[in-house]
Design goal:
Elements: H1 3-16, E1 29-37, E2 50-51, H2 56-66, E3 67-80, E4 83-94, E5 100-112, E6 115-122, H3 125-129
Parallel strand pairs: 1-6
Antiparallel strand pairs: 1-2, 3-4, 4-5, 5-6
Domain SnoaL-like: 8-117
Pfam family, one: SnoaL_2
Organism: Caulobacter ginsengisoli
């Protein structure tokens, strides 16, 4: 299976559970997986800029408890050697305020064999900030 197929499959599975179960990612992530996100720059969001493997549950719990996933839909996934870039439509609603946002997100994945060793997520932080209390 190509990295493109792995990424599409994981995002589709995550969309199917509407972000409620992070286990859909477990098979894809290498033991030393590192995750970075621009969400860490949004003051008051509860997110950090980066997460070590032992902190991923914290990221997913912050996301799940504060936001309701409406949609994750990959529109473009390209691969170049060990790197793959996914661009997808994303829609979330803040559970506390009910305000929602829709944006494109880019995720830059790096693989070692069939497992991801890192991901850097870049999204519309202003859209997220507008939903906060």
């Amino acid at each position: 299976m190509s990295n493109i197929a792995r990424i599409r499959e994981a995002y589709e599975a995550w969309d199917n559970v509407k972000g409620s179960n992070r286990a859909v990612w477990d098979h894809l992530l290498a033991p030393g997986f590192e995750f970075r996100t621009t969400l860490g720059s949004v003051e008051g969001s509860g997110f950090k800029a980066s997460y070590r493997p032992d902190e991923l549950d914290e990221y997913f719990e912050t996301l799940r408890s504060n936001f309701e996933m409406k949609e994750i839909a990959p529109t473009v996934v390209v691969e170049d050697g060990p790197n793959a870039i996914a661009v997808f439509q994303s829609e979330w609603a803040n559970r506390a305020t009910g305000r929602s946002f829709r944006c494109e997100v880019a995720a830059i994945w790096t693989f070692d064999g069939d497992q991801a060793v890192s991901c850097r997520e870049i999204m519309d932080t202003a859209g997220v900030a507008c939903t906060l209390p």
